[in-house]
Predict the 3D structure of the following.
Amino acid sequence: MAKAGDKTKSNQSLVYVIAGDDPSLVNAKYTELIDQLVPPAERDTGLLVVDADKAVIGEILDELQTIPFFTKRKIVALRNADKFISAGGDEENEQDKQDGPSVPAGASNREILEKYFENPSRTGILVITVKSWPKSTRLAKKLPAIGTLLEVKSPKGQDLTHRLTDYAREAHSKSIDYRTAELLVELAGDNITQLYTEIDKLAAYAGNEKAITAAHVEALIGRNREFDAFEVIESCLQRETGPAIERLRKMFAEDKSADYTTVGAFAFHIRRLFTAKKMLMEGQSQYEVAGKARIFYNKEAHFSLLKRLTLKQLGDQLQQLAETDYAIKRGLAQPRIAIEQFVLQLAAL
């Protein structure tokens, strides 16, 4: 057994914890670690992957303490172990081995692991993957003396868009420019696993084309109504009334449901601009505002508009949209006429 405070003479960690809420990133880090710890030729005898839902703590410790054959160390991987760590124990969990951790009958898995962390096996390495690893727990506080915590965080902001461009190139040999990647995040959210799936679909949709474009994203993601609405708003506030009305009428022509959904699309953007303006007035930076208000695409246009508009103007537009929506739903106004009137009013700001 290794003494607490000693990893090994070669400074090899005896326990690795991989923590992160994104399964794809955790799995990637896990694969990378296993490749470092276990040569492919030793996988059959040197690696045991345990299903946490069916794991028994005593059996895991037995495997770690058993002297390995044909390999220097036995690697035991306990994956998705959040529930397992906090699970209760029974009398079978008590370790009777002379070199094993001494724990009371009925101890929880967490308590048994705490004892193990104080006196881990020198011939075994425990790898644990979890969604969260609260650093205030006794178990977490014991880890640095004998092991390593590998925290995996989902990329945000520019890191996220760069990850998407890299993935499109590496997985599909296609390019996607920075603004198109921002648009994808804008429409599909910032969950990296979901975004990879969207890239897969977009690559298939693009076919033989070398690049994934904004047109592909608009066509395939299925939320181009919000995209079109922002283009109308931007044209209005740039005093380009003609192009704004033209784009609005195109929205009605291409989408039969637009009479009843366009108000919501406009409200989505005006509400976000209102929130962003309020945060800027509170002294937050553009970087902070972009992240919190989920402004990923066309940041320059958003912040240009925010410089021109007051909080009251944005609030008034939200009120006007609410009144327009009420009138349409009560049959007091024709949808297309009412929405065009709103757009003309917006262009007059």
